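Running co-folding for adenosine-5'-triphosphate.
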Amino acid sequence: MPGASDNSFSFPILIGDIGGTNARFALLLDAFAEPKQLPPIKTGDFETIEEALQKSILDKTSVQPRSAILAVAGPIKGDEIPLTNAGWVIRPKDMLTSLGLEDVLIINDFEAQALAVAAPAAEDLVQIGGGSVRPLTSRVVLGPGTGLGVGGLVFAQHTWFPVPGEGGHVDIGPRTERDFQIWPFLEPIEGRMAGEQILCGRGIMNLYRAVCAANGDEPVMKDPAEVTTSALSGNDAAAVETISLFSTYLGRVAGDMALIFMARGGVFLAGGISQKILPALQKPEFRAAFEDKAPHSALMKTIPTFAVIHPMAALSGLAAFARTPRDFGVATEGRRWRS
Ligand SMILES: Nc1ncnc2c1ncn2[C@@H]1O[C@H](COP(=O)(O)OP(=O)(O)OP(=O)(O)O)[C@@H](O)[C@H]1O
């Protein structure tokens, strides 16, 4: 391909983070310029990604990108990539021709979130509880949004390796007496409770309805924003309990992920919901559940947990990678298409 060696990309580079609900894009003109952020769009407003990119970006700028690096919610296999939780199917070969690109790389959205926490700016984080970052050690990102994304970041050979996975689908079980009252009313997926049945937008509703059912009440709230707003203002007991339990369960799963990766570099909460319920996550439940990992509670107290408050964290991770791909061990096999 003209102008690009195997592990670099020709500028201008279009970077994009395509979630189940929202898609965010930016243009990188060169390795030194700040990314030029474009207004976020709703995936549901466009039939295809080509239409979204053409109408919302390319028609509004004179810059013609030569490369695209996109992070998508879902596994990347083959030349057709259906987006988990959204209606689009990404066909990189079609993107090369219809958008006039030379190079397209597709990675997992939580790989991009992981890239963003290799060197996060202090002002983009809020620490929850104690512990401190041990430099150049593994990190984990968890993001409750449309689904529950999980990504690891491992440091070896002077390189940060993002580790994509489907960690949001681990089993989650009841522990306390109250959990055992609520659990029978939670809607399972094919007979089991996966983390993503609770720790995401629709999971908030699942949990809220189960709390109401356990209390013998009719649920009155219609969407996750209503539940979190009522919980934060403290004016509805079921909503308050829902978000308190949500914080506990998120702490449990975050602690499990920290143990798996030995994440002495920290656990980072990304995703739209973490920012929206930050005051609830700063209450004792999240951190207490995170540390409650006998026989490793002493270890857990040393591991810091953060909410990522950068509004476009995945894009900042993609920008860091696009500028200096050699610092990151991002696998491109089977995920890069060139004209
Ligand atoms: N105030 C709120 N409180 C809780 N949940 C909310 C709130 N507002 C929106 N949501 C839920 O957050 C989810 C969208 O999360 P996010 O903004 O992270 O989107 P996304 O990037 O498309 O998600 P993902 O990357 O997980 O696919 C939706 O399920 C939505 O119902």
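Result summary
The pocket of adenosine-5'-triphosphate is lined by residues 19-22, 73, 85, 109, 145-147, 149, 201-202, 204, 224-225, 228, 271-273, 276 (CB under 6 Å).
The first strand starts at residue 13 and ends at 18.
Job closed.
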